[in-house]
Design goal:
With 327 residues, this protein is of the alpha/beta class. The chain has helices spanning 21-25, 32-39, 53-68, 92-100, 116-130, 153-156, 205-209, 219-240, 258-268, 279-282, 287-299, and strands spanning 6-13, 18-20, 43-45, 77-81, 106-110, 135-143, 161-169, 177-184, 192-193, 216-217, 250-253, 308-315, 319-326. The chain contains 11 helices and 13 strands. Bound molecules: oxa(dethia)-CoA.
Length: 327
């Protein structure tokens, strides 16, 4: 008998430093009007030099632990989704474990770019379903400011730093996660990627001077793929849960571009008001984006116990995922 997995607490953390569009105007050839009309982003948060991804993740985790009303010792698995790990190894999850005192947890990271949080949630769900683990801490955390080319106006205006976390556990009487979907298409790897810094093109003075250790993106193609993939992922999970968009109290999409969210709302025929949008304040924080948005929806009362919500994401890989949850 498989057990259901419910979200029993959420938390998030955003660094204090705010980087506004008008500050970016002084860094690259851009302007507030272009950024707002093309993306919806007004400001983003930037972590201090000494603040690592595991610091952001640990702060979000502590908030989620408090929200769930558990102790760190109850956590038996930590999964961190990130593309900006503190180091290649150990995993960022191991650093988080020490920072929050979750001594009994097994720890590993997941790499699925902006889709990472939902990939990690689905992994957590399977571990809970089979009964191997009981209390799983899932975190989406990224310090994208370290992999952004601050001279490339096509990308540097889009991204920010942050972390979001959720505690998953079987809650008797709750159906929890009703349906999920994950997908990938590696043939589009080169429309959103970091070519340098891995084993294929290791860090050298040459790769560094060419900025190949920073995000490269074909914005228009990524935009098209994002709309198509997220719509399809949303429909697959809703069909599996035998629900329609009318049944959804709140939709929490990846926070990359307001126009992408509007296009999805339009095609799903759901009013934009039912979507949680916070990219105006945080920009695109990759794996953290949907996790921060989930925490915001939880803390601002956008859904209550028994409501059904949809999370849907898209990212480099390409990767995409969705999850329909009974709250
Ligand atoms: O998290 C992973 C998923 N990521 C995404 O989903 C991102 C998807 N893509 C997008 O959100 C949009 O494609 C962007 C916001 C990145 C770009 O918007 P766009 O409407 O697709 O603009 P574009 O790339 O077609 O560029 C239009 C113009 C170009 O100038 P020309 O060639 O028409 O003269 C760009 O050079 O805008 C120019 N441009 C800028 N101008 C001012 C590009 N970036 C900027 C900028 N400020 N920051």
């Amino acid at each position: 008998m498989l057990r259901s997995a419910s979200v029993i607490g959420t938390g998030s953390y955003a660094p204090k430093r705010v980087l506004t569009n008008s500050e970016l105007e002084r860094m690259v050839d851009t302007n507030d009007e272009w950024i707002v009309t093309r993306t919806g982003i007004r400001e983003r948060r930037i972590a201090d030099a000494g603040e690592s991804t595991s610091d952001l993740a640990a702060a979000a985790a502590k908030a989620a632990i408090e929200n769930a009303g558990i102790t760190p010792e109850e956590i038996d698995l930590i999964i961190v989704a990130t593309v900006t790990p503190d180091m290649f190894f150990p995993s960022t999850a191991c650093f988080v474990q020490t920072k929050i005192g979750a001594k009994k947890a097994a720890c590993f990271d997941v790499s699925a770019a902006c889709s990472g949080f939902l990939f990690a949630m689905d992994i957590a769900r399977q571990f809970i379903a089979t009964g191997t683990h009981n209390t799983v801490l899932v975190i989406g955390a990224d310090k994208l400011s370290t992999i952004v080319d601050w001279k490339d106006r096509n990308t540097c205006v889009l991204f920010g730093d942050g972390a979001g976390a959720a505690i998953l556990r079987h809650r008797p009487g709750s159906r929890g996660i009703l349906a999920t979907h994950m997908g990938s298409d590696g043939s589009y790897a080169d429309i959103l990627y970091i070519p340098g810094g891995g084993c294929l093109h290791p860090v050298t003075p040459e790769t560094t001077s060419e900025h190949s250790n920073t995000i490269k993106m074909n914005g228009r193609e990524t935009y098209k793929q994002a709309v198509t993939s997220m719509l399809s992922a949303a429909n697959i999970s809703m069909a599996a849960a035998q629900l329609t968009s009318d049944d959804l109290k709140c939709i929490i999409p990846h926070q990359a571009n307001l126009r992408i969210i509007e296009a999805i709302a339009d095609r799903m025929e759901v009013p934009l008001e039912r979507f949680l949008v916070n990219l105006d304040r945080y920009g695109n924080t990759s794996a953290a984006a949907v996790a921060i948005a989930l925490d915001e929806a939880n803390r601002t009362g956008r859904m209550h116990v028994g409501d059904t919500i949809l999370l849907v994401v898209f990212g480099g890989g390409l990767t995409w995922a969705s999850s329909v949850i009974e709250w």
